[in-house]
Amino acid sequence: MSAAALVDLILRRTAYMTLATADGDGSPWASPVWFAVGDDRMLYWVSRPTSVHSQNIAARTDVSVVVFDTNARVGEAQAVYARARATEVPDGDGIEVFSRASVEAGIGPWTVANVTAPAELRLYRADVTELSLLDPQATGGRDIRVPVGLTP
User: Fold this and answer.
1) Of 133, 147, 121, 151, which Cα lies nearest the Cα of 50?
2) Range of 61's domain?
3) Partner of 43 for a Cys bridge, out of 7, 8, 25, 126, CB 3.0 to 4.6 A?
4) Is position 143 within any domain?
5) Within a domain: residue 152?
6) Exposure of 126 by Cβ count < 10 A (0-12 exposed, 13-18 middle, 19+ buried)?
7) pLDDT tens, 7-58?
8) For 63-95, how does the pLDDT look when each residue is reduced to its tens digit (9 = 90+)?
9) In the 3-class helix/strand/coil scheme, how is the chain assigned residue by residue?
10) Residue 61: which CATH number?
11) In terms of Cα–Cα distance, which of 130, 129, 110, 131 is closest to 121?
């Protein structure tokens, strides 16, 4: 399987990503968030604007993301690592991607009205700027990453 195909497989079969943000002073914060991925590998999630990670994104758009299978046996896990620019999507553009994943997960559909005022949640998007995978040839649990192209 190609590295690009493996990235897409991991992103589509995994429900949660670890979103790492930093506030305006650079203090880090990591949060697990349920997410959906678009065909263009943009990552979408919903959150309250008052949550720490949302406030951090408002102050500093650079984020890091890790998506991995938490059920994998030790030494057999694979992960997608990404650097991205995150933003609140004020007009709900992309809600159809999030809604489709939500319906597939049995949660139900989402509309723009669910993520715009006066609703309490907002849609967020991470535009991936750099992708990598663990090197499948690395042994001994070494964290050696292989860059992957951005286009699917």
Assistant:
1) 121
2) 3-137
3) 126
4) no
5) no
6) buried
7) 898 999 999 999 999 999 999 999 999 999 998 899 999 999 999 999 999 9
8) 999 998 777 777 777 889 999 999 999 999 999
9) CCHHHHHHHHHHHCCEEEEEEECCCCCEEEEEEECEECCCCCEEEEECCCCHHHHHHHHCCEEEEEEECCCCCCCCCCEEEEEEEEEECCCCCCHHHHHHHHHHCCCCCCCHHHCCCCCCCEEEEEEEEEEEEECCCCCCCCCCEEEECCCC
10) 2.30.110.10
11) 110
Residue 146 lies in a domain: no
Question: pTM, whole model, 2 decimals?
Answer: 0.92
Query: Is residue 69, in this structure, part of any structural domain at all?
Result: yes
